[in-house]
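Deliverable D5.2: sample structural annotation.
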Amino acid sequence: MKTVDEYTAQELVELSSEELERLVDIEVMKSGIVLPDVPTKPGDFKIEKTAAVWEICNGSEVICAFPSEEIAQAVLSASKGEFLKESYIYEIGYEFKFMEACKKADIVKRYVYDESDLRARAKKLKVSSSEKTIYENKKREYDEAFGKIQRLRDHVMSAYWQAMSDKENAEKIYRTFERYKQLSNGDSDIALGFLKNAFTGDAIENANTFLSADKQIA
């Protein structure tokens, strides 16, 4: 069981995608990294207006509200629409208020928040704060482990693609050598001399590690 640094370039280029994934797993295992489960983010507490009320309104101004339409109708009928509201005369001042009759009274239905829902929300907010802290800690642990694994994966894939690049370069050097031999009427020594003008000795030597015995450049 070898790590990526113990593989030769020739061995790396022969690995399948499944074998590369296994190599990543080996790197992770030897590094002692365990990826935690993906933490579940606490859901936001949603609340909607579900309690219906019937309001007796003077235009946009609410005079009073009732829990049922029947009560609102009964109050409106009993009052004959003669509701009073506070008012004042601008020129005299706001502190001098008097009661004036509403010009028009209508019943309007609308929805408001239910008290029990709001109290449940208040209780949930206390719990959510604790859940959020736990989630953030778990998310931090997950991100740190994931980042370490990703760096190991990058290291493996970088070595693999470098090996693939070296192999492609070896094939290029071999093709060039074969072309030079043709131009040199089959004389390998002359072709090799020109090849060394185009590529370094190390590059030619590295190319031979990828080439079969019958294709060695010499």
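Annotation notes: Residues 115-183 form the longest helix (69 residues). The chain is about 55% helix and 15% strand.
The annotation will be released with the project's public dataset once the embargo ends.
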